[in-house]
Amino acid sequence: MVFTERGGKIRLDRICADPPKAVTKEKARERFARLGAELFDLQDEMWGAKVNSVLIVLQGRDSAGKDGAIKHVAGCLNPRGVRVHSFGVPTDEEREHDFLWRVHRHAPRLGEFAIFNRSHYEDVLVVRVRDLVPRKLWRERYGHIADFEELLAEHGTIVLKYFLHISKKEQKERLLERERDPRAAWKLNPNDWKEREYWDDYTEAYEDAISRTAAPHAPWIVVPANAKWYRNLVVAESIVEALRGHRKAWSRTLGDMGRKRRAELAGARSARRAGRERRRED
Ligand code: AMP
Ligand code: MG
């Protein structure tokens, strides 16, 4: 489900975290492969045209699949043009700056993708739920975030924000599975169980964050993420859809650039020819 307007009431408990019955895993995998190929081509054009960039913000509760989504989506891209940044507990240096400082420096440059594993939204999520700064301070941040994303959009950044939506039951199964599976146990973090106790507070914080910062130039996409294969499909599909609309403009820019480069080359060649003829005449 896509949210593009500020101020609407959002009820996450009304949004199903399971994939729709009509979509099978096999069909989703086929479709994902096709989208991946299209994404690769789109990225190539965007890289060349250098008039847009993409910022993908991945948010979600512990074990919602942020890392998995990055693995699959970034796996479709040319590594040359994508950077992934994870935002954890702020360092002392980060804390000594305003909350957007550590984020802004990783905003993508023209032609590039930036993928954020957590983001500036933590400053109105964990910070709000765990009371890390006074209410007066975090309440102001929705406006700062909206302005920041508007600034990025004005610079040509296509901003896409994802909430990977899992059910409470699914999270419990995933956390227990991590404990059982020796290959996944490295991800265990006792804090995940602690955070789980604040489930409803996080729901409210996410609902507010989404409703206060959704915009046509920076939409929120709530992704049913109980099934990993469906989550990957929704993320890939929405990125491709957002980029497709720019393809014509990129092709035009690349066409103009190609003509200009050819003219430059022809000019350089004729100057060289003229030089050679002048030397012969001398
Ligand atoms: P992980 O994503 O599992 O590596 O965990 C990163 C941790 O950093 C999470 O528990 C986040 O809640 C926490 N975190 C990220 N940003 C902030 C922030 N601005 N303030 C406090 N904690 C944060
Ligand atoms: Mg974690």
Quick structural gist:
The protein has eleven helices and six strands. It has helices at residues 25-49, 66-74, 92-95, 101-104, 126-129, 135-154, 168-180, 190-196, 199-213, 228-244, 247-281, and strands at residues 2-3, 53-60, 82-86, 113-117, 157-165, 220-224.
Question: Which descriptor suits the 3D outline?
Answer: elongated
Number of helices: 11
SSE series: EHEHEHHEHHEHHHEHH
Alpha-carbon Rg, integer: 23 Å
Strand content: 5-15%
Distance between the termini: 75 Å
Oligomer: single chain
Spans of at least 5 consecutive residues whose pLDDT stays below 50 are: none
Largest sheet report: 6 strands, mixed
How much helicity do the residues have?
A: 40-55%
Strand neighbour order, sheet with most strands: 1-6-5-2-4-3
Distinct bound molecules: adenosine monophosphate, magnesium ion
Mean pLDDT: 97
Number of strands: 6
What does this structure look like?
The radius of gyration is 23 Å and the shape is elongated. Helix 1 runs parallel beside helix 10, helix 1 packs parallel to helix 11 and helix 2 crosses helix 10. The longest helix has about 35 residues. It has eleven helices and six strands. The mean pLDDT is about 95. The relative contact order is 0.20. The termini are far apart. The protein has about 280 residues and is α/β, with parallel strands linked by helices. It has a six-stranded mixed β-sheet with strand order 1-6-5-2-4-3, sandwiched between helices. The structure holds adenosine monophosphate and magnesium ion. Adenosine monophosphate (AMP) binds next to helix 5.
